[in-house]
Amino acid sequence: MFCRRLSEVRAIPEEVFLRRFELEEKSFSSLYRFLAIPTIAFFNRNIVPVLDFLRAKMIGKTRKIAVRLGKALLRFDNYLYGRNQINLNGRKSEYWDEVSDFKKDSREERK
User: Which of 2, 53, 76, 92 has the smallest number of CB atoms closer than 10 Å to its CB?
Assistant: First the structure.
């Protein structure tokens, strides 16, 4: 079968063959039109919105974690430098009272 078609192509004059070849649709363009374009359209229509939703969800969770971490670090910083006074059963710790008095005195001496 292949040999018969090949002999038919050889029998066609060269100008006619080239004219038909140029008029023929290229196989890659038909592949692009029938396979690539529908695949890209399906991807854009169905998968991209899901990816956008997941990206927004991930960004929201990351932001919440960052806010919680910032709060925890601020609390830890305040604890280390004595900015928060620790209450013991409704009364203040004597140690922190002494520290705050010392700080007030040192500020007054600087002025």
Answer: 2
